[in-house]
Design brief:
single chain, 905 residues, alpha+beta, SH3 type barrels, Methane Monooxygenase Hydroxylase, Chain G, domain 1, seven-stranded mixed sheet, 31 helices, 31 strands, actin-binding, ATP-binding, P-loop_NTPase, Myosin_head_motor_dom-like
Length: 905
């Protein structure tokens, strides 16, 4: 195809005409044939069965006259800057179909190399062979295998596809394909960090990487690559898959401490802040199907600094610990690391004292009907070790289960226990308190081995402890400081107290059925573990106190967007959190970008983006929001998840974000009833939630009688965990009046967003490179899915349409003045910059001058830099053009001055 651009003065556009005639000298404007952006007549593309060139030419000749009145000329911008923003569409009155040709690009020539979508690699390189009414016919590069793709499945490709850059905005084409290719090239060259403007993408290497210190801390502080630490207070928001998040968290926490505290000789607080991570990781991380070291809670770590720049202390806030994991895990997953670390790494004396056994022994006895009570049964019961670790040989054989060792660079159960013990001591726990921690964890493990069986001949319908579980009851009671008989009674019945005219009356013992007793046992285990976790975080904060703080560096580490075959209340809360953070991201990045343009006087229209406010309202709206409806259902005498689901659909039927499971693209979700699930359209994609356990998980309440039982413990620390969070005035009937999980999380998120809004922000997106979790292996489709869930597509669109690269005039002046003679190098920085740009002949749509800096379109600054670093001969001609522009400019100024004087006379 021959494409010609007829440049017209009106509107600064160019009308595109195409000639498919064999006479290459024919003037397409004289042919009278209305052509589309693809070079084909609109009706010919629709009707022609033959896609050959001759057939299209013949159809064009036959239909030109009758279609001439229906077609519209397609106009393209004349400048590269306008061309990059063009979104081609063609409409005619007969079919009103929109034909999209390479979004953000001018129409492609045949033979052009592009990226096409691929289910395995994410994108593959191909060459355009033909264009049809539905898309492109292409040939894969390297194999020439013919393939076809729709228009929206084809993306522009860099001229040099092997070019990699630290900041993706330096590329000429900004789209998902070029971003993925840039990340792949850098990762396979050992570079795990890639920027998109000021957003950092971190890809997990699955091996330990040590920070390099080629210069002193004071020098690194002013390194432009560390610019995100300059603005204080600042928060680093780390989201994504946990393994790279852990790497980023460690890097930012450690780097933040070392970069600022250059004057203090007291390393205790530095070490205590950094060493807190083994504690949080042991009690808050677990193996999931996608990650061997997944964090099942969120945390916001603040590192505070004094006036002189020294570390003053720190504070850790935590959010939404997944307590349900204590009692049950999906097949292939594990409970929290601490349970396995304790079994693997405890000394023989401690092992014997805690009455421990192999991980797979903490299961339901084969003589009983299996239930969901065993706390290690359903999951993976093997140990983890580092690749180069000697842990397998150090763990005694009598502690090994039937499952062999698994290896991971970040998880080692034996060595992890040793690090955990050291970290607990570093956080100020004495030997007695550490033993309390071990006893409590072991007590929870034994509690999970307690089974119940219904008393058939009892008219009251009670239950009792199963015969083969008596030993488990005694072990659990001893480790929790309780009497075994009291624990039995507390588990098999609940105590209610009658009231009359506000006065307390008689205590009544209500027998429980076996399933009710199992639920009470699980609630007790979750409550003990959750409160122990709260206490450990409290002790960490007590070990890093601060009196005064001038500024702080914050690191927010939260799980990224989650979706599985079965999604429950945990994914519901995690994705709600991500919606809030995505909304904050939109406002912070896009709004600040717009404010900067206005402040600098740039004439740029408003930046449009997809607003997810309606999705947040679906969760939070008072009265009909999902969280409020869930709380209302819990307050009913007999709460039922089906009632909650029906009300959720009824109250929010006009909200586009909510739909029924039958609308899901996943088959197993479509098989659910409408009152069994919620399909929510999140910013990162649709997720179908099974609401079966929503009410129970949201309540997470404990029978009053079980709390009274714990308060009878001989361990003061255990008693204090419960008495500090409740009082006798809070107890009515048989439950504690506690705030629901969802409501508490909502308040925590609001406080967190308020805190983030008061600080500078640096966004980090953490990516898992492959599902096998092996070092330096890149799976394109896996990475692409995570980039899409991280909302990078909208960021790329912003950068493509805006001016992502910007440089202060002073920095531009100091960077290039050494390349120029003294006459030019002595100019004022703003005038100096204007001279360079005029002399180089840069397209005015590729840059704009602000008040204090110059702004570049994506990829244009690298072109400018290449021009400025050319050979000396080219610099001479540049100097000549600069002198010409200066003389011309001064002559015009003189003319204006003369005219001004004449007019004033």
């Amino acid at each position: 195809m021959l494409r010609t651009l007829d440049k017209r003065q009106k509107g600064g556009t160019a009308e595109v005409s195409n000639s498919t005639s064999t006479n290459m000298n024919q003037d397409p404007k004289k042919s009278g044939k209305p052509m589309t952006a693809t070079g084909n007549p609109p009706q010919a593309v629709k009707d022609a069965p033959d896609k050959s060139l001759n057939a299209r030419q013949q159809t064009t000749k036959n239909r030109t006259s009758r279609d001439a009145g229906k077609s519209e000329s397609v106009k393209f911008p004349t400048t590269p800057g306008q061309e990059a923003n063009a979104f081609m569409s063609i409409e005619n009155s007969s079919n009103r179909k929109k034909l999209v040709v390479l979004k953000n690009e001018a129409p492609p020539d045949y033979g052009r190399e592009v990226w096409i979508t691929d289910p395995i690699e994410g994108f593959r390189a191909a060459r355009i062979v033909d264009i049809s009414k539905t898309g492109f016919s292409l040939a894969l590069l390297g194999t020439d295998e013919p393939v076809s793709r729709r228009y929206e499945e084809v993306f522009s490709r860099e001229e040099d596809p092997k070019k990699s850059v630290e900041d993706t905005c330096a590329l000429l084409h900004l789209n998902e394909a070029t971003l993925l290719n840039n990340c792949r090239l850098r990762y396979m060259n050992g570079k795990i960090y890639t920027y998109v403007a000021n957003i950092l993408i971190s890809i997990n290497p699955y091996q330990l990487i040590h920070l390099k210190k080629s210069r002193s801390t004071a020098e690194n502080r002013w390194d432009k690559k560390n610019h995100t630490f300059m603005q204080l207070p600042i928060s680093h928001i780390v989201r994504g898959r946990q393994s790279p998040r852990k790497l980023c968290y460690n890097t930012y926490a450690k780097t933040g401490v070392e970069m600022y505290d250059t004057f203090s000789s007291d390393y205790s607080k530095k070490s205590e802040i950094i060493s807190a991570n083994p504690i949080l990781e042991a009690f808050g991380n677990a193996k999931t199907l996608r990650n061997n070291n997944s964090s099942r809670f969120g945390k916001f770590v603040q590192i505070h600094f004094a006036n002189n720049g020294t570390v003053a202390g720190g504070f850790i806030s935590h959010y939404l610990l997944e307590t349900s994991r204590v009692c049950r895990q999906s097949p292939g997953e594990r409970n929290y690391h601490i349970f396995y670390q304790l079994i693997a790494g405890s000394s023989p004396d401690l092992y014997k004292r805690l009455k421990l056994d192999k991980p797979d022994c903490f299961t339901v006895s084969v003589q009983l009907v299996p239930s969901q009570c065993s706390y290690l049964k359903n999951g993976f019961t093997g140990f983890f070790a580092n690749f180069d670790s000697q842990s397998p040989s150090k763990i005694l054989k009598n502690r090994l289960g039937n499952t062999s060792f698994s290896y991971d660079s970040m998880v080692d159960d034996f060595n992890g226990f040793q690090r955990l013990e050291a970290a607990l001591k570093m956080s100020g726990l004495n030997e007695q308190e550490i033993m309390f921690v071990w006893s409590t964890i072991a007590g929870v493990l034994h509690l999970g081995n307690v089974e119940f069986e219904d008393i058939v001949d009892d008219s009251k319908g009670g239950c009792k402890i199963a015969k083969n579980c008596e030993e488990a009851v005694m072990h659990s009671a001893a480790l929790l400081g309780l009497q075994a008989i009291e624990l039995k009674l507390g588990l098999c019945a609940r105590i209610m107290q009658t009231t009359k005219v506000g006065l307390r009356g008689t205590l009544i013992r209500v027998p429980l059925k076996s399933h009710e007793a199992s639920a009470g046992r699980d609630a007790l285990a979750k409550a003990i573990y959750s409160k122990l976790f709260d206490w450990l975080v409290l002790r960490i904060n007590q070990s890093i106190p601060f009196d005064k703080s001038t500024n702080f560096v914050g690191v927010l580490d939260v799980a990224g967007f989650e979706y599985y075959a079965v999604n429950s209340f945990e994914q519901f809360c995690i994705n709600y959190c991500n919606e809030k953070l995505q909304h904050f991201f939109n406002e912070r990045i896009l709004k600040e970008e717009q404010n900067l343009y206005e402040k600098e006087g740039l004439n740029i229209g408003r930046i449009e983006f997809i607003d997810n406010t309606d999705c947040i309202e679906l969760f939070e709206t008072k009265g009909k929001g999902l969280l409020d409806l869930l709380d209302e259902e819990a307050r009913l005498p007999t709460p039922m998840f089906r009632n909650f689901t029906k009300r959720a659909h009824g109250e929010n039927r006009k909200n586009f974000r909510l739909d029924t499971p039958r609308k899901s693209k996943v088959k197993i979700h479509r098989e659910m009833r409408d009152d069994e699930g919620l399909l929510i359209r999140h910013y990162a994609g649709s997720v179908c939630y099974e609401t079966r356990n929503f009410v129970e998980k949201n309540n997470d309440q404990l029978y009053n009688s079980l709390e009274i039982l714990i308060e009878q413990s001989t361990f003061p620390l255990l008693v204090s965990l419960f008495t500090s969070s409740s009082s006798g005035a809070n107890r009515t009937n048989n439950k504690l009046k506690t705030q629901s999980v969802g409501s508490k999380f909502k308040l925590q998120l609001s406080a967190l967003i308020e805190k983030l809004q008061s600080t500078g922000t640096h966004f980090v997106r953490c990516i898992k490179p492959n599902n096998r979790m092996i070092p330096w292996h890149f799976e394109g489709s896996v990475v692409l899915t995570q980039l899409q869930c991280a909302g990078m597509a909208s960021v790329l669109k912003l950068m493509q349409n805006g001016f992502p690269s910007r440089t202060p005039f002073g920095m531009l002046y100091s960077s290039y003045q050494s390349n120029l003679p003294p006459k030019l190098a002595s100019m004022e920085p703003r005038l100096f910059s204007k001279c360079l740009f005029r002399a180089l002949g840069l397209d005015q749509h590729d840059f704009q001058f602000g008040l204090t800096r110059v702004f570049f379109k994506a990829g244009k600054f690298s072109e400018f830099d290449r021009m400025m670093r050319q050979d000396p001969e080219s610099i001479k001609s540049l100097i000549t053009r600069v002198n010409y522009w200066l003389v011309k400019g001064r002559w015009k100024q003189a003319q204006y001055a003369v005219w001004s004087v004449i007019k004033s006379l």
